[in-house]
């Protein structure tokens, strides 16, 4: 295989992904040849790219000379034989194993033996795709994200037979195209679609348990955890016809591992045609570009006289955060070991629901309101009730925590609130990806930040939140729910026990 820089790339498939890859390659100065079996599709894609670049010139984001050079680098191929001089050919056709295998066999008949065959698949096995080729060692995954010009990340995936130099050459190509490569082994979902399973599936479980509404869950995760979009907003944006097959594919390929289990609600919504924005109805209703909110934030109750507050927390971090906030809000905080008969009992459990927290702290559950101290308390507070919490205590807690104008969401009893169970699940899944050796800790964090838009990489986020706190959350949810999806990863358990960073790699074994 040549070590010369890659200067010529072929793209098979002129849909959204193929068009995006071709545009980025051409703008990077590479010769890009675009082929599609549909008559006129490649030419239409080239015209579409020219229109996109012209609009960028009009807005002053691109010079006319750069646009002309890019269009000059972009060629319409009339047949697969026209890709003969390409050093890499990327397939971006329908997400079907047999179709991709057939294409690779055709390409092997017309391409030089040293040409790399790359698949832009998001969920199919690279090893399986390569298995039909005479030379499976030349095949690798090269997974870009939509829209390609904006999502500057590409996963480079090694199949079981992929030669090491193939992945290295694709790394170089991705960098030449102005994108960031991350390396992954051939595992269902690779890095991004694998790591992203926790966000939506956990939100669906919270919804399915009747803990909170769609709007409340989205609001809490945006305002208390820093996500750009709530999970249901994201599912509506992507469309259930796209997201559900990926969820089900990853779940099946992992032999129904509980961590990846989708929720039956999605299949019902798909059957009803409630796909999201594209159908006008998903978890929200849409009128044009705007969503009609499923519910509004709760009105702050009027409470002229607030009771004294007694605090109970599972750890010192939670106690300090809660005490500082309550002092700033002007609460009368009791200092005794036991609450007075009139006190509102504000608890800060990790992983527990309010019911079991009340029992552990041996306080009257009728006066208990729990607060999530893993979440950001500056902008939003999540309060959790138990089935016996009195109405006057609910009103008092809500009024108190809304005193400074911050948002307050009140939810029903749940092991781990909304933020705790969501973030713990995200970090735990990333730890399992590291444990399995699917990718390096650096590439896991980078891929998730760039590919999913999370505020932090999951392993870095776990360090910020505290590995020991997350371990306690997972252990309690696992014990109370009995659901194996919450069992802690060995990677998390060992690093929390040793008090070291979740980014600490394994020691190399002796030769």
Descriptive notes:
The chain has three domains: 8-186, NAD(P)-binding Rossmann-like Domain (Rossmann fold, 3-Layer(aba) Sandwich), CATH 3.40.50; 194-292, Orthogonal Bundle (N-(1-d-carboxylethyl)-l-norvaline Dehydrogenase, domain 2); 309-411, NAD(P)-binding Rossmann-like Domain (Rossmann fold, 3-Layer(aba) Sandwich), CATH 3.40.50. The chain has 20 helices and 15 strands. It has helices at 16-27, 41-58, 64-73, 97-110, 126-130, 164-176, 192-195, 197-208, 214-223, 231-238, 240-253, 264-271, 316-328, 354-360, 391-401, 419-435, 441-452, 458-465, 467-481, 490-498; strands spanning 8-12, 31-35, 74-76, 88-91, 116-119, 139-144, 153-158, 180-185, 285-287, 290-292, 309-313, 344-348, 368-371, 380-384, 407-411. Strand 9 (285-287) and strand 10 (290-292) form a beta hairpin. It starts with 7 loop residues before the first strand and ends in a 13-residue tail after the last helix. The mean pLDDT is 95.
């Amino acid at each position: 295989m040549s070590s010369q820089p890659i200067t010529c790339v072929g793209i098979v498939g002129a849909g959204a992904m193929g068009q995006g890859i071709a545009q980025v390659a051409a703008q990077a100065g590479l010769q890009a040849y675009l082929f599609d079996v549909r008559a006129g599709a490649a030419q239409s894609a080239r015209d579409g790219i020219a229109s996109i670049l012209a609009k960028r010139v009009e807005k002053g984001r691109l010079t006319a000379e750069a646009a002309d050079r890019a269009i000059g680098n972009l060629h319409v191929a009339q047949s697969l034989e026209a890709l003969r001089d390409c050093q890499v050919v990327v397939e971006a056709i329908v997400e079907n194993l047999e179709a991709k295998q057939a294409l690779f066999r055709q390409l092997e008949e017309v391409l030089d033996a040293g040409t790399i065959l790359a698949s832009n698949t998001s969920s199919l096995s690279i090893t399986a795709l390569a298995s039909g080729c005479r030379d499976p060692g030349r095949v690798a995954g090269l997974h870009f994200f939509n829209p390609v010009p904006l999502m500057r990340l590409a996963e480079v995936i090694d199949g079981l037979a992929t030669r090491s130099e193939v992945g290295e050459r694709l790394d170089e190509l991705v960098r030449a195209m102005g994108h960031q490569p991350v390396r992954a082994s051939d595992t269902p979902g690779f890095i991004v679609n694998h790591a992203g399973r926790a966000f939506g599936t956990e939100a669906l479980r919270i919804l399915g348990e009747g803990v909170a509404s769609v709007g409340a869950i989205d609001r809490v995760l945006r305002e208390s955890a820093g996500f750009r979009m709530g999970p249901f907003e994201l599912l509506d944006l992507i469309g259930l016809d796209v997201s559900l097959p990926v969820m089900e594919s990853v779940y099946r390929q992992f032999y129904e591992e509980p961590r990846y289990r989708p929720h039956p609600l999605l299949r019902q919504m798909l059957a009803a045609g409630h796909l999201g924005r594209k159908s006008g109805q998903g978890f929200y209703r849409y009128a044009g570009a705007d969503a009609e909110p499923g519910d509004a934030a709760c009105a702050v109750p009027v409470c002229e006289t607030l009771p004294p507050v007694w605090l109970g927390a599972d750890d010192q971090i939670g106690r300090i955060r809660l005490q500082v906030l309550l002092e700033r809000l002007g609460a009368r905080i009791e200092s005794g070991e036991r609450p007075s008969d009139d006190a509102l009992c504000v608890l800060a459990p990790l992983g527990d629901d309010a019911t079991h927290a009340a029992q552990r702290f041996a306080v009257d559950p009728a006066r208990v309101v729990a607060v999530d101290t893993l979440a950001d308390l500056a902008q939003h507070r999540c309060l959790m009730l138990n089935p016996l919490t009195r109405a006057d205590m609910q009103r008092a807690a809500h009024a108190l925590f809304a005193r400074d104008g911050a948002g307050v969401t009140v939810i029903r009893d749940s092991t781990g609130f909304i933020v705790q169970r969501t973030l713990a699940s995200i970090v735990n899944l990333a730890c399992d990806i590291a444990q399995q050796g699917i990718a390096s800790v650096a590439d896991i964090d980078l891929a998730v930040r760039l590919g999913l838009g999370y505020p932090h990489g999951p392993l870095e986020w776990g360090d910020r939140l505290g590995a020991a706190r997350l371990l306690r959350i997972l252990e309690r949810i696992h014990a109370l729910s009995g659901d194996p999806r919450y069992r802690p990863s060995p990677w998390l358990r060992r690093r929390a026990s040793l008090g070291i960073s979740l980014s600490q790699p394994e020691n190399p074994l002796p030769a």
